[in-house]
């Protein structure tokens, strides 16, 4: 039996992973911003006979204070963690700043995952074979970190913001393992491929377009999560694990640069205070 926390676990791949482990008898806490989807998650868990093992935390992970509250609530619910799964993601057609002044895509794709990873490390280190799983675009080499304009004040674009978030997410995994060389928690970066994980986070007309695209071309959640579950249950021995769908990646990829990872860490480590 495992203890898991899944950020973004009320829909899509996060929910798929949560339900898989609830069926295995694990204790699973998920977070999500939508109260109704949280209730649906708990109702489905009850139908599986896993009511006592499932918990939901309503939270808006765009906010630093909400991430910190989530950490405290997870600490109250779990004595240890075997897995932290980071799936929360949203695309913003127009530039939007969080209450803390961060560009919103970067806030969800990197800042929130950064805070949760470091903030829950103590619980993870108490787990039997702990892993952090961060789902994103690992293996892609498009996009860059805009070092002098992380908030994208100059020339914002949805694709530009998403690609920067993906590259920052990759560097998070590299920096985390560099900063915890003596720990036992492994960090798994995973690109699941194009998955039909829902369109609740999108606005029109993108929602309608992506719904059609998902039905035509995307693989179902149940298929996308299988390689991730295998990695979680039997992680390779190395501290940093990077996979693109079902294949391991070369850790010398320029997008996994240790120098860049520590540079980004040093730019954002003040958030952990």
A few lines on this structure:
The chain has 273 residues and is α/β, with parallel strands linked by helices. It has helices spanning 12-23, 35-47, 64-77, 104-119, 121-125, 158-179, 206-217, 221-233, 258-268, and strands at residues 3-7, 27-32, 54-58, 83-86, 131-135, 186-191, 195-196, 219-220, 240-244, 247-248.
Query: Total helix count?
Result: 9
| Assembly context of the chains | single chain
Q: Bin the helical content.
A: 40-55%
Overall mean pLDDT score? 93
β-strand amount: 15-25%
Largest sheet: 8 strands, mixed
Outline the secondary-structure elements.
Elements: E1 3-7, H1 12-23, E2 27-32, H2 35-47, E3 54-58, H3 64-77, E4 83-86, H4 104-119, H5 121-125, E5 131-135, H6 158-179, E6 186-191, E7 195-196, H7 206-217, E8 219-220, H8 221-233, E9 240-244, E10 247-248, H9 258-268
Parallel strand pairs: 1-2, 1-4, 2-3, 4-5, 5-6, 6-9, 7-8
Antiparallel strand pairs: 9-10
Helix pairs in contact: 1-8, 3-4, 4-6, 6-9
What attributes does this structure have?
alpha/beta, 10 strands, eight-stranded mixed β-sheet, two-stranded parallel sheet, single chain, 273 residues
Task: Characterise the protein shown here.
With 273 residues, this protein is of the alpha/beta class. The protein has helices spanning 12-23, 35-47, 64-77, 104-119, 121-125, 158-179, 206-217, 221-233, 258-268; strands at residues 3-7, 27-32, 54-58, 83-86, 131-135, 186-191, 195-196, 219-220, 240-244, 247-248. The strands form two sheets. It has an eight-stranded mixed sheet, with helices on both faces. The two termini are 33 Å apart. The relative contact order is 0.14. Residues 206-217 have low confidence and may be disordered.
């Amino acid at each position: 039996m495992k203890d898991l926390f899944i950020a973004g676990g009320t829909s899509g791949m996060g929910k798929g992973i949560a339900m898989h482990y609830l069926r295995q008898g694990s204790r699973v806490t998920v977070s999500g911003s939508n109260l109704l989807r949280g209730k649906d998650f708990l109702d489905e868990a009850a139908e599986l006979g896993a009511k006592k093992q499932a918990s939901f935390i309503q939270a808006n992970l765009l906010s630093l204070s909400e991430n910190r509250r989530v950490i405290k609530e997870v600490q109250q619910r779990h004595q240890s963690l075997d897995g932290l799964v980071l799936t929360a993601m949203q695309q913003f057609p127009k530039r939007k700043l969080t209450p803390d002044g961060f560009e919103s895509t970067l806030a969800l794709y990197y800042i929130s995952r950064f805070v949760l990873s470091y903030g829950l490390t103590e619980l993870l280190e108490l787990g039997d074979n702990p892993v952090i799983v961060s789902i994103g675009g690992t293996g892609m080499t498009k996009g860059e970190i805009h070092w002098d304009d992380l908030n994208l004040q100059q020339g914002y674009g949805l694709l530009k913001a998403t690609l920067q978030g993906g590259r920052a997410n990759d560097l998070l995994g590299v920096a985390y393992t560099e900063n915890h060389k003596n720990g036992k928690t492994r960090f798994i970066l995973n690109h699941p491929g194009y998955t039909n994980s829902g369109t609740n986070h999108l606005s029109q007309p993108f929602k309608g377009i992506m719904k059609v695209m998902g039905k035509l071309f995307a693989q179902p959640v149940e298929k996308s999560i299988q390689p991730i579950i295998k990695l979680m249950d039997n992680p390779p021995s190395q501290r940093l694990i990077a996979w693109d769908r079902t294949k391991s990646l070369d850790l010398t990829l320029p997008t996994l640069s240790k120098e860049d990872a520590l540079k980004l860490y040093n730019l954002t480590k003040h958030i952990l205070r």
